[in-house]
């Protein structure tokens, strides 16, 4: 009885929603693509397609499935946000932000150093 309640609370997984199928208690994709990530899954579905996602997940070893699912979702979002560069564009943007923060930090350190010199 308790397992049935968990299944109802869980809701259908993103794969079953996309395939318009009933998501059973033993759905192999429910743990990796819960309905909370439906938006991300839709992005990944546009990039890869559900059949290819299912095939990749079935071929992956059990210990790597969560990493693969996360990668599929992130890659889908990356290509939606940057259709030209995808994940590489996201990486370049993050690296650029890091460099800007380093420059800002260096400027602040120089300002602190100059203020200390003025006080002495």
From TrEMBL:
PROSITE patterns noted in UniProt: LOB
Similarity remark: Belongs to the LOB domain-containing protein family.
Domain LOB, chain residue ranges per copy: 11-112
Protein's name according to its UniProt entry: LOB domain-containing protein
Pfam families, per database record: LOB
Stored PANTHER family: LOB DOMAIN-CONTAINING PROTEIN 4-RELATED, LOB DOMAIN-CONTAINING PROTEIN 5-RELATED
Xref: InterPro entries: LOB
């Amino acid at each position: 009885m308790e397992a049935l309640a968990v299944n109802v609370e869980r809701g259908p997984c993103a794969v079953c929603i996309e395939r318009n199928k009933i998501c059973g208690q033993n759905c192999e994709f429910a743990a990796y693509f819960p309905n909370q990530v439906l938006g991300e899954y839709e992005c990944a579905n546009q990039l890869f397609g559900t059949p290819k996602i299912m095939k990749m997940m079935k071929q992956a070893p059990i210990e790597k499935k969560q990493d693969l699912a996360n990668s599929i979702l992130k890659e889908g979002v990356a290509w939606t946000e940057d259709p030209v560069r995808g994940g590489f564009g996201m990486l370049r943007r993050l690296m650029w932000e890091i460099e800007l923060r380093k420059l800002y930090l260096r400027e602040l350190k120089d300002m602190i150093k100059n203020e200390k010199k003025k006080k002495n």
